[in-house]
């Protein structure tokens, strides 16, 4: 079989640039045991590309099948490469006339609050599901293609999780519109008319035939927006009145810089081992953005928010949220820089994961693509001032404003901060003595002492209230005694009895005095 494939390679080498894609048909053919494979040779007629797969048009397919009695595993894929090809009366493949296909790049922005992620799912609302329904209504794809996006070579630059939003998401696809130029001019408006308000198509551009949104993406930038009080020190109050200083921002940037470069992030995801090479990720940049004061209309006052921007080649599941969580824990003094650097080592560590609210896919980068095709195709890294301004406006009004609103209503970051002490951000096997001296141990001790001090203060306050109550009762009883003694003065005689009030402790007692010695 290897010899046969090798012969096919030699016949095709002149015609193709990437010969490795051709055996997609031959791999679907099997032999019966004992069959002679001599003569199992295909003559190349031509090759063509359909929906991301390249196929060979072979001239003597029917003769070979009859002579060698080859067992065909997938007859449709072999005889008819797709619905766009057919066979003549002699069984030889013949190409049908079809509408020309073009590759397109689509810039998408969406608020993910209502959706179970980006990727289409059968029984759940997703961003792709809404997009494909709109495309079907506009006649760009069929109804059957909605749950099978591979049919029109759909691909996304980055997959976002449930409730995560995107200001600039790139999608690639191959479509065959009736009028290519008219499609480029009207596709955005037609799709937006069918899409919900929280999903917007910012623009559509023609791309190269081999363009794939995920494969051609150089890097991705995410932002994470959170209240600045998350970075309050141990000796500072964590409340809405907190304002982060320039010194703290500088220190925070120095801490974020520890993530730059190539590291093993197996502690920042789940279900992987340290030896898995896919854990190696490269971080281009990680820094703070400007702060923003936001009015809290529920409780009153102003709350300061800050955004962190991280740019990397690619990211794993939960990686960014755990990077944020570890940064907050380190900055607040629950662990040191040493513990942060140790998270890149082979020991499994309990890295806290920040809430999902605040995470946004901010931008996908295509700098290399633009350099290669700047003379023949429009740029994809920058869509021009008008489209970029609309994307920024959508990000501000629909994404960031919703993050502010939800955070002020739910205080998700504040509630998460209260759980940080539950995380054991230490390497297993650390001694008890060194743990007690660690920042986490000291923070736990401080929390314990503060709780004990609070109990003592509460006890003292209760005692003070008790004493004050007793003093008031004594004063009241003394006044009653004085009135009683005045009313009984001059009435005492020998043999007469006098009631005298004796105050013992907190309750009065009447003693019968006979006047006898």
3D architecture notes:
This protein is 34% helix and 22% strand. The protein is of the alpha+beta class and 517 residues long. It has four domains: 2-95, no CATH class; 102-206, 2-Layer Sandwich (Alpha-Beta Plaits); 219-429, 2-Layer Sandwich (Alpha-Beta Plaits); 430-479. Strands 7, 8, 9, 10, 11, 12, 13, 14 and 15 form a nine-stranded mixed sheet that branches. β2 (44-50) and β3 (53-58) form a beta hairpin. The relative contact order is 0.08.
Cα-atom radius of gyration: 38 Å
Do you know the CATH architecture of the largest domain? Answer: 2-Layer Sandwich
Order of helices and strands: HEEEHEHEEEHEEHEEHEEEHHEHHHHHEE
Counted by DSSP, the helix tally is 13
Shape: elongated
Main beta sheet: 9 strands, mixed
| Beta-strand fraction estimate | 15-25%
Q: State the CATH superfamily name of the largest domain.
A: Pseudouridine synthase I, catalytic domain, C-terminal subdomain
**Span between N and C termini?**
133 Å
Helix/strand-derived category reads alpha+beta
Summed over residues and divided by their number, the pLDDT gives a mean of: 77
Q: How would you summarize what this structure contains?
A:
The chain has 517 residues and is α+β, with helices and mostly antiparallel strands. Its main location: nucleus.
List keywords for this structure.
13 helices; alpha+beta; 517 residues; Alpha-Beta Plaits; 9-stranded mixed sheet; single chain; disordered C terminus; two-stranded antiparallel sheet
Helix/strand layout:
Elements: H1 2-12, E1 29-30, E2 44-50, E3 53-58, H2 61-68, E4 71-72, H3 75-79, E5 85-87, E6 93-95, E7 102-110, H4 127-137, E8 155-156, E9 165-175, H5 180-194, E10 199-206, E11 219-227, H6 246-256, E12 261-264, E13 280-295, E14 302-312, H7 319-331, H8 337-342, E15 359-365, H9 367-373, H10 385-410, H11 412-417, H12 432-437, H13 439-488, E16 498-504, E17 507-513
Parallel strand pairs: 9-15
Antiparallel strand pairs: 1-4, 2-3, 5-6, 7-9, 7-10, 8-9, 11-14, 11-15, 12-13, 13-14, 16-17
Subcellular location: Nucleus
EC number: 5.4.99.12
Main location: nucleus
């Amino acid at each position: 079989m290897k010899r046969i494939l090798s012969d096919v390679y030699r016949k095709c080498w002149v015609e193709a640039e990437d010969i490795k894609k051709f055996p997609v048909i031959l791999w679907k053919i099997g032999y019966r045991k004992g069959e002679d494979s001599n003569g199992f040779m295909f003559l190349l007629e031509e090759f063509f590309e359909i929906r991301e797969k390249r196929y060979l048009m072979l001239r003597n397919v029917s003769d070979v099948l009859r002579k060698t009695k080859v067992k065909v595993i997938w007859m449709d894929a072999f005889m008819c490469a797709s619905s766009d090809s057919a066979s003549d009366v002699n069984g030889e493949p013949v190409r049908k006339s079809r509408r020309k296909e073009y590759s397109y790049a689509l810039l998408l922005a969406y608020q993910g609050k209502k959706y179970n992620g980006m990727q289409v799912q059968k029984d759940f609302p997703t961003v792709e599901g809404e997009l494909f329904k709109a495309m079907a209504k506009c006649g760009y794809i069929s109804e059957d293609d909605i749950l099978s996006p591979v049919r029109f070579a759909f691909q996304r630059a980055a997959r976002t999780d449930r409730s995560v939003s995107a200001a600039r998401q790139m999608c690639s696809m191959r479509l065959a519109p009736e009028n290519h130029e008219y499609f480029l001019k009207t596709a955005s408006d037609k799709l937006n008319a069918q899409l919900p308000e929280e999903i917007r198509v910012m623009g559509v551009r023609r791309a190269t035939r081999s363009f794939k949104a995920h494969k051609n993406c150089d890097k991705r930038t995410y932002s994470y927006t959170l209240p600045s009080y998350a970075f309050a020190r141990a000796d500072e109050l964590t409340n809405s009145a907190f304002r982060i200083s320039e010194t703290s921002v500088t220190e925070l940037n120095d801490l974020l810089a520890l993530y730059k470069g190539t590291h093993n992030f197996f502690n920042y995801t789940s279900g992987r081992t340290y030896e898995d090479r896919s854990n190696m990720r490269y971080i281009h940049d990680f820094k703070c953005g400007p702060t923003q004061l936001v009015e809290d209309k529920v409780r009153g006052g102003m709350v300061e928010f800050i955004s962190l921007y991280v740019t990397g080649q690619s990211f794993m599941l939960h990686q960014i949220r755990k990077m944020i969580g570890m940064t907050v824990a380190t900055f607040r003094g629950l662990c040191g820089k040493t513990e942060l650097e140790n998270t890149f080592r082979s020991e499994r560590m309990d890295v806290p994961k920040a809430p999902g609210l605040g995470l946004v896919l901010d931008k996908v980068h295509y700098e290399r693509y633009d350099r290669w095709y700047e003379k023949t195709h429009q740029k994809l890294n920058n869509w021009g001032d008008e489209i970029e301004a609309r994307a920024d406006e959508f990000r501000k009004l629909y994404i960031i404003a919703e993050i502010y609103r939800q955070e002020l209503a739910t205080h998700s970051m504040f509630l998460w901060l209260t759980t940080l002490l539950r995380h054991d951000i230490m390497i297993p096997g650390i001694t008890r003595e060194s743990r007690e001296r660690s920042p986490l141990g000291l923070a736990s001790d401080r929390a314990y002492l503060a709780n004990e001090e609070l109990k003592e203060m509460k006890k003292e306050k209760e005692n003070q209230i008790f004493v004050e109550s007793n003093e008031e009762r004594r004063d009241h009883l003394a006044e009653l005694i004085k009135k009683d003694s005045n009313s009984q003065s001059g009435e005492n005689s020998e043999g007469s009895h006098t009631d005298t009030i004796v105050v013992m402790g907190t309750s009065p007692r009447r003693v019968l005095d006979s006047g006898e010695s």
